[in-house]
């Protein structure tokens, strides 16, 4: 099945914003629907779905009359039952990562900081295969490995669809080539190619920057054109963490701003990658 907590979270957040903008509280909404107020809270938190007639009723209560806006929210509510491209891989993915894939596919902008590896959205298939094999030291069968690589590569399709990607790497990433020199050169060539795309900005924090605010490790901040507030995401071997509380996400926004101030310019970054590619 689809990832209801992710799509439901997006819909719920928008409904909460509309309710507040209309000057209504949770009890007002519950009374209008004829349900208990905990149900409204669960809808707004993405924990339960909302029936079509209930959604239309709330939109009436909140004064949402624009047909296009109403239709967007109806479509979002139906996505709870939709199949996505990663649905066939569900046996190989955690539910939290499936949730992240939904967020990644619906985000308008991603800011990715990576201190050790090429970001997943910018990996070639062969580089991805090597990294996945290294990151999961436990024995995995060929089908699982192929599926994990497929998922990682297919994620990058959002870039061809225009999603904005701002990626910052530590220079250490460029000093960690994979075992096969040809795969590494192809990966660097791919980075240079992607850096030329109008919706991709790639920058590197050089060793010369000294100590900076990258010690917390890899993270991604996702922004949404139709959802107020960002979402922060961290991924590790033991699992994934998604944060959407403004105070928590604010810490990662601040960290991103600090990292950005010490990173090379996009052109300096491409020049450095080219130098590593030519002399590595």
Automatic annotation (TrEMBL):
Every HTH cro/C1-type domain range: 15-70
A Pfam family: DUF5753
Transmembrane segments: none
CDD domains: HTH_XRE
Protein name per the record: Helix-turn-helix domain-containing protein
Native species: Streptoalloteichus tenebrarius (strain ATCC 17920 / DSM 40477 / JCM 4838 / CBS 697.72 / NBRC 16177 / NCIMB 11028 / NRRL B-12390 / A12253. 1 / ISP 5477) (Streptomyces tenebrarius)
Lineage: Bacteria, Bacillati, Actinomycetota, Actinomycetes, Pseudonocardiales
């Amino acid at each position: 099945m689809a990832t209801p907590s992710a799509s439901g979270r997006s819909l719920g957040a928008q409904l909460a914003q509309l309710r507040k903008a209309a000057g209504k509280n949770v009890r007002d909404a519950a009374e209008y629907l004829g349900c208990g107020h905990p149900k409204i809270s669960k809808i707004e938190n993405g924990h339960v779905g909302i029936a079509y007639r209930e959604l239309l009723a709330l939109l009436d209560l909140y004064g949402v009359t624009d047909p296009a806006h109403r239709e967007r929210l109806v479509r979002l509510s139906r996505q709870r039952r939709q199949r996505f491209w990663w649905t066939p891989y569900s046996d190989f993915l955690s539910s939290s990562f499936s949730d992240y894939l939904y967020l990644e596919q619906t985000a308008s902008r991603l800011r990715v900081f990576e201190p050790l590896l090429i970001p997943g959205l910018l990996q070639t298939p062969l580089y991805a295969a090597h990294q996945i094999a290294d990151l999961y030291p436990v024995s995995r069968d060929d089908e699982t490995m192929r599926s994990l690589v497929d998922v990682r590569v297919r994620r990058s399709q959002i870039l061809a669809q225009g999603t904005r990607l701002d990626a910052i790497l530590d220079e250490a990433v460029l000093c960690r080539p994979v075992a096969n020199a040809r795969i590494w050169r192809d990966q660097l060539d791919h980075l240079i190619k992607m850096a030329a795309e109008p919706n991709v900005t790639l920058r590197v924090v050089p060793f010369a920057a000294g100590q900076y605010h990258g010690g917390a490790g890899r993270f991604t901040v996702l922004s949404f054109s139709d959802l107020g507030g960002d979402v922060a995401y961290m991924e590790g071997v033991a699992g994934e963490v998604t944060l959407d509380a403004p105070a928590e996400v604010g810490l990662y926004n601040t960290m991103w701003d600090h990292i950005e101030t010490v990173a090379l310019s996009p052109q300096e970054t491409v020049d450095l990658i080219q130098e590593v590619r030519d002399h590595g």
